[in-house]
Every structure is written in C-alpha cells, then in structure tokens.
Amino acid sequence: MHVFVTGGTGLVGSAVVAELRRHGHSVVALARAEASARAVEAAGAEPLLGDLADLDAVRAGAARADGVVHLAFRNDFSGPDALARAVAEESAAMATLGEELAGSDRPYVTVSGTPWVTGRLSTEEDPLPLDGPVGGRARSVNGVLALASRGVRSSAVRLPRTVHHEGKGGFAGLLTDIARRTGVSGYPGDGTQRWPAVHALDAAVLFRLALEKAPAGSAWHAVADEGDQVRDIAAVIGRRLGLPVEPVAEETYGPLGPIFAADQPSSSAHTRAVLGWEPTHPSLLDDLEHLSE
C-alpha cells in the first residue's frame, strides 16, 4: 500500500513510518521544513514539503495515496488561544483529507485521545468528550468516522495521555520538562488520578493494523498500561532527576490543567481481541528509568 502520513517525524509518527516500511508499505510523509524532509528520507520514505496549514499539499498527498494516516498536530500549549488555533488548523486539514478520500473506499486512520469516564476504565465504546480545551479535536475525529457513510474506511486510534519511548513523550514527558525547569517533580491534586500509557513502538503497530484491516467507522485503544497514578510517575521522575516530589497547583499546566488533574484509566481489551494487537515493549514506569540528570 502507498500511504500518506502527516506528522511522520514526531515521536509516534517516526515509529509509524518505520513500522509501515517494515511491513512492505511505501510512505510519503508531510514535511514542514528541510530538516524534516531529510529525516523522512533517512527513514526510507518520500517527503512532501508542506504543513497542516498548506491544504493544497495535504490534498495532494492524499490524492496519490492508497491510504492515509493522520498524526500531525501543532503542539502549542502556551495558552487557550494558541491551542484553539492549533485545533482549528488540524480540523481544516482533517476535513480536506476526508473530502479527497470520499467515495474511494480507501483507509483513513486518524488519531485522538482516550476518553475518561467517572468511576471506571474507558472503553472503545465510550464517546469522546466534546467540551473542554480539546473538544474541537474530538468533533473533528467524529467527522472522520462519519466518512464511513461516504465511502471511506475511516478509523481512529485513541492514544493515552502518555506515548513514551526511552523516557520521553506525552504527559509524562511534560512532567519531566516542567520538573527540569522548576526544580520540583510535581503533580496536580493528590496525585491519585490515573493516566494510561503506551510505548510508541507498540502504538505504531496498532496504527498499521488499523490501516490494513479496521472496519469503517471504528475506534481502537492503544493502551498498554491501563492507569498509573500520577504521583507514582512523578516519583520516578523525581528520583531519576534528583528532585523533590511535591503536589503543585493545577494552573502549573496551563490550558491542560483540567486534563492533567482528571482520573482517566482506560482499557484496550476490545482492540486486543478484535485486531490481535499485543503490546510487547516496556511499561511507562520502566521506560522512565532511562531518564538521567
């Protein structure tokens, strides 16, 4: 299959490109700068210069592909306005991809986060929350899944709050960055809230499986660890960096504060049973042992 990938040089995207190449697929990846293009070429893929705001490039990439994996997002969490602009940019790109693929029966795999449900693990059957700081992303993902009625084999891989590799990535990575900057390995609230996690290399396998065989309009959970308490995550970070571990104000995390404070464990039982996905790489707490001062 000839696959168009957006976000192909990020933590998840680079793993997805490598996974697709290992299984015989050719890849064209959107690259917003020359350095990104060189990274794409080094991975054995073909770069297409442009970014999510360049809808002509997005459309051109989809037009020549047998399938699409969308992963790109402008990670600007500097404030509510910046986050809203990033969501709007991504939404326009996702809609453009959908219009290009409509009526073709080609696969279109997009990405979202796992939802949170009070008092229990979330499952693939639970809807995404449509409000909050990233509610716009959920509405766009629902729009992609609705393309099933327009001749697109659309699916969504829901990623947990931390996708990690060698101690980097996701919300745990943000906790690490803030700890290094402030000198405190902090956590919001009492730290008993649980975050699910997955290794980037395991997540990449699920994106490939969804591309190859997921039914139209389906959602899947890339969850390996159902939920580590945030204070346990902060404790490993603090120990590895030699920093004190303390509760901090929710406002420390800017517009993501409410999400950081939420208890959001999640299950992937349905995904494993139906697609045969089975994580094999280190857990988050084990992976954080790669951190060093």
Radius of gyration, rounded? 18 Å
CATH class placement of the largest domain: Alpha Beta
SSE string, helices as H and strands as E? EHEHEHEHEHEEHEEHEEHEHHH
Can you tell me the residue ranges where pLDDT is under 50 for at least 5 consecutive residues?
none
CATH architecture of the largest domain: 3-Layer(aba) Sandwich
The overall pLDDT, averaged over residues, is 94
- The N- and C-terminal alpha carbons lie at a distance of 43 Å
Largest sheet features: 7 strands, parallel
CATH topology of the largest domain: Rossmann fold
SS field, number of helical segments: 11
Query: Fraction of residues in helices?
Result: 40-55%
Describe the structure.
By secondary structure, this protein is of the alpha/beta class. The chain folds into 2 domains: 2-162 and 197-225, NAD(P)-binding Rossmann-like Domain (Rossmann fold, 3-Layer(aba) Sandwich); 166-196 and 227-266 and 281-290. It is 40% helix and 20% strand. It has 11 helices and 12 strands. It has helices at residues 11-22, 34-42, 55-63, 80-101, 135-146, 170-182, 200-213, 230-241, 257-260, 269-275, 284-287; strands at 2-6, 26-31, 46-49, 67-70, 107-113, 153-159, 162-164, 185-188, 194-199, 218-221, 225-229, 245-248. The strands form 3 sheets. It has a 7-stranded parallel β-sheet with strand order 3-2-1-4-5-6-10, sandwiched between helices. The longest helix has 22 residues, at 80-101. The radius of gyration is 18 Å and the shape is globular.
